[in-house]
Write a structure and sequence with these properties.
Blueprint (H helix, E strand, L loop, with lengths): L10 E3 L4 H9 L4 E3 L16 H18 L5 E11 L2 E3 L5 H11 L3 E12 L4 E13 L4 H7 L22 E5 L2 H5 L3 H16 L4
Parallel strand pairs: 1-2, 1-3
Antiparallel strand pairs: 3-4, 3-5, 5-6, 6-7
Length: about 200
């Protein structure tokens, strides 16, 4: 069995998401957090190449933090919500959030998370993407109003938090639950295994 945990190298999460930090810590990693500079994410997401563009965006975030921490292993990630040909990022305000929830009501949408690992000193970069289908029941307008009466929707792709009060909107989930929270566990572990086997073991 491969030990995927990083024993002798500092691990940095290039994200301000407390949910991603929590998931990594629950996986057993000791991490520090360093947010990359503000990036206009919409400029990098291409509807005709969602898999590729979201991985590139995750790598961009990881690479920016890795430049000032060359010996660290940096984890970058980005999550989007997709229904049909429309990509939903984080809401710009409560009206935008309300419109998003109306759009998702009674439908199935896909949550995609791109994850990237970057180590500057070892010239290591690898990415992956995970997709999870989320089925929303028909949501009444009063339920949307009640949900938006607190700030849980703020800074959430698609304007909802699956691990919070928005659980009442969901009929079922097909795929990794933690991907919807913000970071796919199995996909991230597979990236870490690749780093340990290809790079760290070669330096022993």
């Amino acid at each position: 069995m491969i030990d995927w945990q990083i024993q002798n190298r500092r691990v940095i999460l290039a994200s301000g998401s407390p949910r991603r930090k929590m998931i990594l810590e629950q996986m057993g990693l000791t991490i520090t957090v360093e947010k990359p500079h503000l990036i206009n994410e919409e400029e990098y997401i291409t509807i005709d190449d969602l898999d590729g563009s979201i991985q590139k965006l995750a790598l961009l975030k990881a690479s920016e933090v890795a430049k000032s921490n060359p010996d660290a292993l940096v984890i970058g990630a980005d999550t989007i919500v997709v229904r049909g040909k429309r990509v939903l990022g984080k809401p710009t305000g409560i009206d935008d959030a309300r419109e998003m929830l109306r759009f998702l009501s009674g439908t199935v949408h896909t949550v995609m998370t791109g994850v990237a690992l970057r180590c500057e000193s070892l010239n290591f970069a690898k990415t992956t993407v995970e997709s999870t289908d989320v089925y929303f029941r028909d949501i009444q307008e009063c339920e949307i109003d009640h949900y938006l009466s607190n700030d849980e929707y703020v800074d959430k792709a698609g304007s909802y938090a699956v691990q919070g009060r928005a659980m009442i909107f969901i009929d079922k989930i097909a795929g990794c639950y933690y991907n919807v929270v913000g970071l796919p566990v199995s996909g991230t572990i597979n990236l870490l295994k690749t780093f340990v086997v290809r790079k760290e073991s070669a330096n022993v």
